[in-house]
Amino acid sequence: MIQLNINNKVYEVDASADMPLLWAIRDLVGLTGTKFGCGIAQCGACTVHVNGTPVRSCSFPVGAAAGKMITTIEGVNEKIGEAVKKAWIELQVPQCGYCQSGQIMSATALLKSKPHPTDADIDAAMQGNLCRCGTYQRIRSAIHRAAEMI
Amino acid sequence: MEKSNNTQSRRSFLKVSSITGGGMMIGFSWLANLIPHEAIAGATATKDWIELTGFIKIFPDNRITILSPNPEFGQNVITSLPMLIAEELEVDWKKIKVEQGDYDTPRFKRQFTGGSQAMRMAWKPLRTAGATARFMLLQAAANEWDVPLAELTASNAVVTHKASNRTITYGALATAAAKLTAPANITLKKSGEFSLIGTPQKNVEGSKIVVGKSLFTMDYKQEGMLIAMAIHPTAFGMKLKSFDASEALKMPGIKDVFEIQVYKDGYVKAGFDTRTFNNLVVVVGNTTWEVMNARKKVVIQWESFEAYKEFSGMGNNKREDTIPAGLESTESHMKQMYEMQKKPGKVLRKDGDPEAAFAKAKKIMEKTYSAPFLPHNTMEPISCFAHITEDKALFVAPIQIPDMMKQSITANLGITADKIDMKLARMGGGFGRRAYGHYIVEAGLISQKMKAPIKLIYTREDDMSNGVYRPSYMVTYKAAIDENKNVTAIHVKGGGIPENAIHENRFPAGAFENYLAEGWDIPTNITIGAFRAPRSNFIASAEQSFLDELAEAIGKDPIDYRIELLKKAKANPVGKNNEYDAERYIGVLELVKKKSDWGNPKNKTVKRGVAAYFCHNSYAAHVVDLTMKDGQPVVQNVVSALDCGVVVNPEGAKNMIEGAIVDGIGNVLFGGLRFEKGVPIQKNFNQYRMIRMKEAPKKIDIYFVQNNIDPTGLGEPPFPPIFAAFANALYKATGKRHYHQPFINALNKS
Questions:
Q1: Sheet of B700-704: strands edge to edge?
Q2: Is the interface score ipTM higher than 0.90?
C-alpha cells in the first residue's frame, strides 16, 4: 500500500510503485479532474503539484509521490488558485475544457513563483500545456488578470 | 413580427408532453455533476417538474431548467442554444439551469454537432419552443384568472395582470399549462426586440470546468466498471492474422484478452460509419495502468490484406468502393498526386473558352499547392462507456451526431433501437473526429463479451494512428494574363487522397469569363473523415494564396483586387451556380480593411497578409501581422471580420473564432502526418508538433458585420482563410512563397 496525501487528505492506494501518479489519482483515488492526454509528459493535461512544484502526473511514478503533498485541480483553493479560477471564468477561457485543469495547475504554479509574470514568463511556464481548441491568448490574459487580483 | 407556424411544428418538432418520468436521470453520481440542482433538491425517484415543449422543465418553486439538445464539444452551444429558448420564454437567464439533453432525437428533432449548422438549424425551432411554452403559460394564467390573454404580460418567469395587479409564477402555472394544446401559430420576436440574444453570456459549464468536475466520457465511472483497450494494426493495409495472449493474461488485474470484429460481414455502412480497423485485439482489466502494461505482452501477427469491396450508403444512395491493398507512404502519395496533375481531370465546371484564353495569354502564372493528412488530435483521446444488458444498452459517449450511430449500434450489436440509452458527455474536442462513432460499437461489443460495464480508452498513440484523418490534397491554380495585365482565365485542377477539395462553384468562379475546374481522386486504404471545414480548409489555403500572388503579379492591392473581382461577380456573375453572396464577401473584406488600417498599419515593423473565404454559410476575412524571430514567424496580431448573421452569444462566438485562428496557424505551420509503408510515423506529441503558447498570436481582434440575417455557422468558417492569411504574411516577411504544408519543413531548411 502506498500512502498519498492529496489535497490534504490521506489515501491508501494498492498500486505498484511504477504506476503513474495520474492513474493512481484517477483510477484508484477517483479524482478525475486530472486528465489523461498523452501519457508521455508532452501535453500537460495531467499537471498536478507535488510539494508545490508542477509535475506531469502521467510520467511521475506513484511511488515517488508517497509522503509528499499532492495538489490536484480539485484541491486548488488557496488565494492564488482561486484568483486563477476566477480569472478563467471572467475571461471565459475554456472551449472544450479538457486541457484546462492542467492549464490552471501550470498557471497557479507560475503565479506562486512569479506573482507578476511577463509574457515571456508565461510562454516559458505554459509551453508544456497543449490546447487544441486554441485558447492560448485567453490563458495569457487570464494569467495577467489573476496576477492583478492577487 | 416573425411568424412561426406550429401546425407543422407540432407534428415535426414540438412535443408538448405533460409530465415526464424524472427519476431515471438521477442516481448516477456522474450525472449529478451535470444537474446539481436536482441532487440538491433531492428529486430522487419522483418527477417534480413539469415539462413543456420537450426542452423546458419548470419546477413548482419556479426554478427552470432548459435542455440543450446538441452534443457539446467546445463550441458552447450548451450556452447559446438554450439562450434562444430563454429569449422567448421570458425568464431571467441568470436563474436558468442548463442540462445537456440525452440522446433522444425523436424528442429534440436535431442533435447534430457538425457542419457549423447548430445555430442555423436551431434558430427558429428553439425560439418557437420558448415562445410556445410562454404562450401556454400565459394561456394558463388567462384561464385561471378568467381574463383575456392579451391583458397579460410575461417577464422573469412571472405572469402579470396589470389591470388587477395580480402576478403568478411559471412554477404555479406549469401543471395547467402542460394540459393545454400548443398554439398553431406563434409570433416570434423580431431582431430589435431581443434582450438576451446578442448579449455576451458566460459558458454555463465554465464553473464546472475550472474545478475539474467529471464532465467527460474519460471521467465516467460506474460500480464494477472494467477498463478496455483495443490494439489495431500497426499499418494501414494490414489486418489481424493471429495473436497470443498467454503472457498478457498472466498480468495482474487482467480479466480477458479477445478479438472483436467491429462491423459484421456484409454490413452496409451508414453515413458516419467510417471504415475502420475492423478486427481488433482487446485487453480488459481492472485499471488503466494494468491494461496498458498487459497490452504490451500480447504477441500479435498482422498480415497484409487484398483489395476488397466496401458497401455503404443509406436509402437509395448506395455506394460501392474498392479499397486498395498495399502499404502507402507520403513519398508515394506525392508522386501519385503529381502524376494525376499531368493527366486530364474530370471537368467540374467550365465557363467560356479557357483553352483559347490560355492560348492567347501573354503570361501564364501557375502554382501548385499541397497539404498532408492531418490527425484531429482532440485533447481527450477517444473513449466510450458501454453497459449492455438484456433490457438496456447504456452508453456514455462523446459523439457529434448520435442518431447517425443508431443503425450501426442496432446492426452490429444485435440490439433494438428502443434499448439504446445514450448520455451525451461533454467532448474534449471534436473537430469532426467524433462524428465517426465506431468506438461506440467497439465499446458495446466489449461490454457484451464481458457481460459488464466497460470503458474503452484509446491511448494517444491509439488515437493518432487510428485513422479518420483529414485527406491529403494537391491543387494547381493557373491564371492567363494578357498584355494589359488583365487576368483572362483561371484554371484550377486538383485532387486528393481519396477526395478532391475543389468547390468549383465558389469564388473566384463567377468572376472570370473563362474558368475551368477539374478534379480527380486517388483511392487509399488510409481512413479519412471530416476535419473542421472539410475540403475548404485546404482549397481556401491554396486559392487565397494564389489570388495574393496573382494580385501582386498584376500590380494590385490584394484586398482591392478581391473586392474588384467580387464586384464583377455581383454585377455580372458568370455562370449560374455560384454558391456565394458577393456582397457579403465584400462586406467582410471592407470591414477587415478598415479595422486593420490596411493601407497604413499602426505597427510599421510587422508584415501583413490577408485572406477571405466563404463556407458553411458564413463569410470570414483575416489580416495577419507577423514578424520573424530566429527564423521563425511570430504572429503579432490578427484582425478578423465575420459575417455570420445575428451573433447570438458574442462571448462564445469570439472564443471560437480565436480558436479557429490559432488552430489554423498551428496546422498550416506544423500539421502533417507522414506515412512510411502504411505506418503513421508520428504517434504522440513528442513527434507530432502542435501549436503551443509561444507560437499563438499575441493579439486577436474580432469584428462582426452587423445585420439582421438569420444566424449561420461559426465553428468552421474562420478556419480555412487563416491558413492563407498566414501564408501571405509569411511571404511578406520572408520574401518566399510557401506552397507545401506544413511550412515548418521549408522554414527549417532555409
A1: B607-615, B618-629, B632-643, B700-704
A2: yes
